[in-house]
Amino acid sequence: xxxxxxxxxxxxxxxxxxxxxxxxxxxxxxxxxxxxxxxxxxxxxxxxxxxxxxxxxxxxxxxxxxxxxxxxxxxxxxxxxxxxxxxxxxxxxxxxxxxxxxxxxxxxxxxxxxxxxxxxxxxxxxxxxxxxxxxxxxxxxxxxxxxxxxxxxxxxxxxxxxxxxxxxxxxxxxxxxxxxxxxxxxxxxxxxxxxxxxxxxxxxxxxxxxxxxxxxxxxxxxxxxxxxxxxxxxxxxxxxxxxxxxxxxxxxxxxxxxxxxxxxxxxxxxxxxxxxxxxxxxxxxxxxxxxxxxxxxxxxxxxxxxxxxxxxxxxxxxxxxxxxxxxxxxxxxxxxxxxxxxxxxxxxxxxxxxxxxxxxxxxxxxxxxxxxxxxxxxxxxxxxxxxxxxxxxxxxxxxxxxxxxxxxxxxxxxxxxxxxxxxxxxxxxxxxxxxxxxxxxxxxxxxxxxxxxxxxxxxxxxxxxxxxxxxxxxxxxxxxxxxxxxxxxxxxxxxxxxxxxxxxxxxxxxxxxxxxxxxxxxxxxxxxxxxxxxxxxxxxxxxxxxxxxxxxxxxxxxxxxxxxxxxxxxxxxxxxxxxxxxxxxxxxxxxxxxxxxxxxxxxxxxxxxxxxxxxxxxxxxxxxxxxxxxxxxxxxxxxxxxx
Length: 643
Ligand code: HEM
Hints:
Helix content: 40-55%
Number of strands: 14
Strand order of the largest sheet: 2-3-4-10-7-5
Radius of gyration: 26 Å
Bound molecules: protoporphyrin IX containing FE
CATH class of the domain at 225-318 and 328-386 and 397-615: Mainly Alpha
Number of helices: 24
Distance between the termini: 22 Å
Structural class: alpha+beta
CATH architecture of the domain at 225-318 and 328-386 and 397-615: Orthogonal Bundle
């Protein structure tokens, strides 16, 4: 098939595609989702992995936001530069020059030897020195392992990659220092549990709050202390069971619209860039779900869609800038990007304020009594629930909460779907097994809430994709008082990164940690969570600050994956750029996920179902035998990339 890239008539969200730029990354800045940001060091890594090569399928139209994004991305890191940095870091770790010396100064040993030869008084002094040395060693062994590096060895690549290499050498709790600044990196499940759950009260969101303040204000993700407690208590009930069930049909509707787009592309012989399409679909979902707003970004590129992306991009940008010039008011007038950001925020705020006012009027006119599982059929949004609940909250706080959820629930979901689709394109056997389940459970029905229990393998595929590509890959905290982590003391004010990436890929925890094995999660077992896995698996965090949209997000991913699987097979587009990783708050691809989506011929379904049953019958928890599926996979996934 002759393929071209779908030319999307949109501006802003295309950021993900081609540019050598961080356009790509335009943000997910989520919050927590922004968690992988939060310091110059972390932020610098955000722009990692971008290739300066131009892509062969650029969108023809560049809107203002996209142009702005491209403008600032020129001349970032080349692939060669990143590879050079990987090598340098590996060599430095191997040579030991990255490690802080933990032995007493070598001169002491020589002095002791000289003293020992100088008769009884010298021997006495040498013994005294030996005792001091022993005390030193004891003291040092109580110190946290420390890697002291040069920030240039870390930037230019997704930050969780060097953190993984360092973890393998320095262990589950170590300090990473750059000059006077240090971060404690946690990759040990029990220590993660202590920070997230057992002693959660001692940890704030630290630098994350500062970065996100301009967009989320005191919304749930950046908020700490009393504000967080009050707002969490108010918002959580809005995502009750009936609400999530009502959302299933919204997910299906949006996934169907995406399916139509893919079908149209196929008819024209075009490839599709799935990362930006998933981003648009997730924006459409979250707009409706949170404040009943129809972005319809899959079809139109309206000013508000562009404004959302400009704002998200800015949050990412601020996390990487060395000098926070926007804190100086005059620069906000002088610097064009700051003027654009101000205009975007003004538009979003005005839209949200209108929606809030409109919703208030509707609630005032509504006759239905408010109750615990209140859902308005025409407007099942979270905003409607909060207003109907009579939530005593200022419009500003409400706006902050809505904006936070918009960001938190947007790119995370998009990223999960992007990497799941990528993984499946690399694992035809698992893709065939998935199709078999979807066909047998759904046929050509649209999924309902009851199907969520039945789509077991689909759920496992998502669980496993979230293990390999956690969104965000790092969680950020700051200690408010001294604590002891894994036996090492830390001081108040210590910045901490919990590396979900390291936990999820730790060779000490997982068999074949790097492999995509949905079967590692038994179909008849409970859905894996931080509780079932005792903090070895924390795709939604854990403890009091755990994601409140976890069930929503899981169902959104399952429904979308099932709907698309029912209609298409996916394969990487011939000649598509290698799918590399880069990170904002979530993990993005470096150059987009260019695929061929082929509408399915339902003739292969029966044989795939037989295979699913045969495979399930084995009740084997290992990796599915690829050989079993090979034939089906080959005939039903045209051009599928093979492992
Ligand atoms: C696959 C999609 C999603 C993933 C992987 C995800 C992941 C996470 C994670 C890991 C955290 C904890 C952050 C931390 O501890 O620092 C979090 C927090 C949060 N998430 Fe999500 N999330 C997703 C979707 C959503 C959705 C759809 C919503 C809203 C409807 C949402 C709203 C929130 C909020 C408000 C918080 C902050 C909770 C608090 O601090 O009290 N998320 N999310």
